Amino acid sequence: MTDFHGVFPYLVSPVDSNGRIKTEVLGRLASDLIDAGVHGLTPLGSTGEFAYLDRAQRLDVVRATIEAAAGRVSVVAGVASTSTADAVAQARDYQRLGANGILAILEAYFPLKDAQIEAYFRAIADAVEIPVVLYTNPQFQRSDLSLDVIERLATHPRIRYIKDASTNTGRLLSILNRCGDALSVFSASAHIPAAVMMIGGVGWMAGPACLIPRQSVRLYELCRTGQWTDAMALQRRLWTINEAFARFNLAACIKAGLQSQGYDVGDPIPPQAALTMDERKAVTAALEMLTI
Q: What's the pTM value of the predicted model, to 2 decimals?
């Protein structure tokens, strides 16, 4: 079974004024990221604005990413819904397209109890034959995964990873202690990746890696080989981009940064708004400081 590790950029979803996915732009970005050394690609994560896309757009995003990857790296496609049946259908669609894994996200309108949350993720994992990454982000999700639910889900043979964006590194350590080798932990941009690697993480899935892929891969390699002094020196530099992005809408920041790098990815999907000129300058300035 596929082993996921390293840097997985959360890809943007380039959309034109008619709502069509700019598949050629997405393909070029995906290929360039692979050339820069990333270990995998994640379409339809938070940076991919999954909550603002319809079914056809999502399919186009995943298909274009898989075609661009052409088997060179793993593609872990995001599945998100308020409905279990819809989430299962998405997961099956993406496996059929050739995805190597599923990033499972729970959207909730009404609050859910632990048993219902667990059943949602089990249904996704039962529906496919590829690895599943749990994604928990309490900042945006009405219903989060408790440690007890995570520990039970880790017994499922296809639920093998978790990306936790809680900002609580102690929670990550609790997950590692409870689940052991059954569940590998990916960092989010809300965490300090080097710190997560130090406690036993296997990499990170994050939007900013779209903009600084080579620096991100370099940081991963330093952590993987235990060069912690150099890793923390680089981490301190890279953290400035997270600080800049925390001030604004994340998708808008990533798209503005990619536009400054020559990718015609368009603006974030309404009702989100594009960055103002001053905000774009702040993002561009942060990126320029990280050029190595």
A: 0.95
User: What would the mean pLDDT of 210-231 be, rounded to a whole number?
Assistant: 97
Residue-wise DSSP of the chain: -----EEEEB----B-TTS-B-HHHHHHHHHHHHHTT-SEEBTTSGGGTGGG--HHHHHHHHHHHHHHHTTSSEEEEEEEESSHHHHHHHHHHHHHHT-SEEEEEE--SS---HHHHHHHHHHHHHH-SS-EEEEE-TTT-SS---HHHHHHHTTSTTEEEEEE-SS-HHHHHHHHHHHGGGSEEEE-TTS-HHHHHHTT--EEEEGGGGTSHHHHHHHHHHHHTT-HHHHHHHHHHHHHHHHHHTTS-HHHHHHHHHHHTT----PPPTTS-PPPHHHHHHHHHHHHTT--
Written as one letter, the residue type at 287 is L
Beta-bridged to residue 154, according to DSSP, are: none
Overall CATH class of domain 6-225: alpha beta
Domain spans, the chain: 6-225
Percentage, residues of the chain above pLDDT 70? 97
Query: Can you read off the two tokens belonging to residue 134?
Result: 């749990």
- Torsion angle (degrees, nearest 10) of CA 22, 24, 26, 27: 160
Nearest of 114, 111, 106 to residue 135 by alpha carbon: 106
Task: Give 230's pLDDT tier (boundaries 50, 70, 90).
Answer: very high
Orientation angle between helical segments 84-97 and 55-69, nearest 10 degrees:
30
Section 135-156 average pLDDT: 87
What one-letter code names the amino acid at 56? A
